Amino acid sequence: MSDLTPALVEAGPAAGAANWLGVWTLFVKEVRRFIKVLPQTVFAPLVTTLLFMVVFKVAAAARAPVNGLPYEFFLAPGLIMMAVSQNAFMNTSSSLMVAKVQGNIVDVLMPPLSPAELTLAFAMGGVVRGLVVALSTVAAMLLLPFPTLMLREPWAVLYFGFAGALLLSSLGIVAGVWAEKFDHVAVVTNFVVTPLSFLSGTFYSVDRLGPFWSAVSHANPFFFMIDGFRYGLTGQAAGDIGTGAAVLLVLNVAALILCHMVFKSGYRLKA
């Protein structure tokens, strides 16, 4: 019996040790899942973002600069960040929803993965999809006759891009677990994610709003994501960058804790 002990120990992670191989395997599975359907997961949002850019560029050809920036230079960072957030959310929410509908969610729950490890793998899969969409959009804008994007503050681009993608990816986990059918995910997308992203200063400067609506905009977490990302590319911001960075940090910690609690409880995951 003692001769079998080493083999049993090597078969899986030791008690209390992180199962990094399991985390990596689930993460790779999540990335491969959206890579297999690139026309739907990357090219479609890329085209949508470019169409927004074309329409608003033509419609605002004679529009006055926004905060000293040509309108298209002001608009581009907001559109990129909006695409990042929406696709990070869709990656995790659709992955969990499909697994529940097809009945193979058990393949995720049975392996020796802790709630924290499940959260990390799923969340990072959503982050990767959001960032891939962002890089594809930036590349397309550089190749086409769109505004030349410049890195004014690289740390802000990296931080707010990653933090925004992580926040929406985490919220996508919660939505995917909560939803019992695809219509429920669509409700969250259409009545929460899309309105918040549109009403966050993506297409306009919140400085031009009245005091009440300006305060409402500053209470929108999407505002901090887009404003911080825009600051990184243009050097212009409508709010305090330090406050925005702190708010996103707190929201991400809260969202990740919520994901951990959801996986730990087995809410709508275990029969």
Please describe what this structure looks like:
The chain has one domain. The model is unreliable at 1-11 (pLDDT under 50). It is mainly α and 271 residues long. The chain has helices spanning 5-10, 20-35, 38-59, 71-102, 106-109, 115-143, 154-178, 182-198, 211-218, 221-234, 241-265. Helix 7 runs parallel beside helix 11 (241-265). The protein contains 11 helices and no strands. The protein is 73% helix and 0% strand. It starts with a helix and ends in a 6-residue tail after the last helix. The relative contact order is 0.14.
Q: Which tags fit this structure?
A:
mainly alpha, globular, disordered N terminus
Mean pLDDT: 88
Over all CA atoms, what is the radius of gyration? 20 Å
Could you say which overall geometry the principal axes of the C-alpha atoms support? globular
Share of β-strand residues: under 5%
Report, as a whole number of angstroms, the end-to-end distance. 36 Å
Helical proportion? over 70%
In short:
With 271 residues, the chain is mostly helical.
Give the topology.
Elements: H1 5-10, H2 20-35, H3 38-59, H4 71-102, H5 106-109, H6 115-143, H7 154-178, H8 182-198, H9 211-218, H10 221-234, H11 241-265
Helix pairs in contact: 2-6, 3-4, 3-6, 4-6, 4-7, 4-8, 4-10, 6-7, 6-11, 7-10, 7-11, 10-11
